[in-house]
């Protein structure tokens, strides 16, 4: 039985970053890449299932992205994932989360995965939709924001709890195979020691191209994306002013400000 | 009188069967001793190879010197050291004496007919043996007194890592063993003298014996007392055999038991001293390339020397007393780590067959296993290694065991986070690399980029000095000092990474390798003569450890450099300050690298009145930040080591400034000053700030003490 864990290498902003000249993203130089925080938890959840299972379980981490993503996949291998797959083709540039879901679904089918785990969201784009779209492309059930999971490999259903707004929890029974997006705090992710990461460098990272997945350039990339970024910017800081004085003076000041805004 | 008659007739009046019986018992005792020795050596050989093998003659001489001067035993407990030396020399002389008799009676006389144990030699021999016997007994009586009446906390075997009621909580067995050891040895001594006196009474009519009785003065006095008490020659003769056997059997039993009891320290302590590593803890061992997993998991992961170290410990408690973790009630005593591992090794490695891998695991909660909390309590301050009289090297063992914990992710989540941060950003503050030299912006001059132009001195700043706002002021002050003195210096700017000293002492060896290699490559690409740093932690690893990663650099701590700048007149003292100060030796500058004098000399040059704390120089008390502990929150409810230190400083009358020379110390102690209630009484200052005050007359940044 295979559990596929979809992971993403996310970008974090360095101090004093600059926006790219085309205004669509941050200048590459100012980005620091690392594995998405949620993915530590979804990988850990898969590892826990693997380690407590009597029957063999294979944990396969999959990521869609360029060469640099290997570094993050290696970290997953260091934590004990059995295999790592990186999917990339220059045509995939500009894919949105729906398109990435299509790619991941193709990998899940090719790998004959029994379960797919993903993080609730990525810390950079924060769409919270890649896992869900993967489920849609697979036509599998899904559960989002999973904060607790009871699942034994190969069984027809999983019992999980979901975190809802307002401190509510929801216990859900879900038919398997399914796609679960895992919430922070569901477990205690293990530490990948640097020696472990170094040793993982010896493990191969499989790479898949479009053709391996039965997809064409027309299925992916900016052209197929249903949404696109128009502009990225740092909004001007809002201004706030405390109006002090007697009530009468406060009202007078307020009226003055309103008039100023109306352009009177 | 024929001098050949002046001797002692061995086995006088014994029947041959009795003599045979004695030899049988004697050989049996030696056989037991040899078997025990064999099993112990077999135990050590179950350890891994150790780099300490080699240069045996030099090592032997060094050990002999330490042993005969009793240098290490006299440190911080001169009375115990002196008394131990009396026991030691008494024992050695008595052993030589017995061996001399054996040499003549059992070897030279029967084989070659040579005899020498008579006449003047015999008389001198008697005198020496009596003196040695007195020394032995006096020393042992002192040790009994010390154990029974002095109630020294360091001789209390209760373990800080276990609770009352836990198995082997107070190591009762050790206490009994101590007393059995003392009583056996003292009884051997006393019966020896009684036997001597009884013989004198028995043979009082024989001039060759009686006329020379004062050559064994203790025996003679006792003999006279016995005679006065009414003991006749016949009576003495009748008493003799039982006494003789009692003394003999006790002595032989003692010999037989050596390898199985604490008595073995006469060999293991000597061997441990012989194989001491002067760089222990200062340079941690690399993980061999071919070794798959890091650190120590099982007792067989230890090296033979470390297994020997475990047996060398005599429970003297000096490390227990010096350990900052133990002082604040943390679940760690270096003594108990060693003793637990010793018991563990004896339980698992003494049999002819090794038990299964699982039973060899030293980590866990079993009676002789080591708790994770214990390992994480260590500050790697090296106080234990420094003071151990028998060269037990605790810290490398603790770090090796931590390496295993790190590999398995068994650590505080916040420490895990810090290590990840260091990996990602190259510093423990999680700041952008670009901000490493942000503190230079406030300076009125530019600092050279050592990566772009040659400089005399590369200044390796270190994390705390670079990013901590309070320390940045000190860092800027040091830059002004160097600038004023006209030193040609430069920085590595964003290429500088955490030096890795503490990362390595946490046990994250892989990350250490990444950091060290990166810094070494950066430094190698620069043109410079030497390195300076204000951070003793960086100083230690660059000085001692980088060379093992192909990075051999000359580095000095700023105290050495500034002292020279002042002495050479390049930095002029414009104003002296007459503060009453005390100085805290940073572990990594003091104990680690013996940099005790330069900071004190500078304080003297500045005109300060230095009042030492009781724990100074090699006995300096760690601020609690070492070994990565600065990244681990302290246990609530326990006093912090830094607060403990503040109390010590607070006891100095009229203290104005508590002087430190380490960025981490500044952070730790300024915090502790507030939390321990000494705020407003005295201030904590980096030595650089005092120097700056004296050099930059009227500087607005000058930090005048509050008092």
Assembly type of the shown chains? heterodimer
Would you give the CATH topology of chain A? Rossmann fold
User: What is the top-level CATH class of chain A?
Assistant: Alpha Beta
Q: N- to C-terminal separation of chain B? A: 84 Å
What labels would you give this structure?
heterodimer, A: 264 residues, alpha/beta, Rossmann fold, B: 707 residues, mainly alpha, Fumarate Reductase Cytochrome B subunit, Fumarate Reductase Iron-sulfur Protein, Chain B, domain 2, 3 domains, four-stranded parallel β-sheet, 28 helices, 9 strands, 4% strand, elongated, disordered C terminus
Describe this structure in words.
Chain A is built from seven helices and eleven strands. Chain A has 264 residues and is α/β, with parallel strands linked by helices. In chain A, the strands form two sheets. A nine-stranded mixed sheet of chain A has the order 9-8-7-10-6-1-4-5-11, sandwiched between helices. The longest helix of chain A is centred in the N-terminal third of the chain and has 16 residues, at 37-52. The radius of gyration of chain A is 23 Å and the shape is globular. Chain A starts with a strand and ends with a helix. The model of chain A has no long low-confidence stretch (mean pLDDT 93). Chain B is mainly α and 707 residues long. Chain B folds into three domains: 53-162 and 173-272, Fumarate Reductase Cytochrome B subunit (Up-down Bundle); 290-407, Fumarate Reductase Iron-sulfur Protein, Chain B, domain 2 (Orthogonal Bundle), CATH 1.10.1060; 415-695, no CATH class. In chain B, the strands form two sheets. Chain B has a five-stranded parallel sheet. A four-stranded parallel sheet of chain B has the order 7-6-8-9, with helices on both faces. The radius of gyration of chain B is 31 Å and the shape is elongated.
Please provide a brief summary of the model.
The complex is a heterodimer of chains A (264) and B (707). Chain A has 264 residues and is of the alpha/beta class.
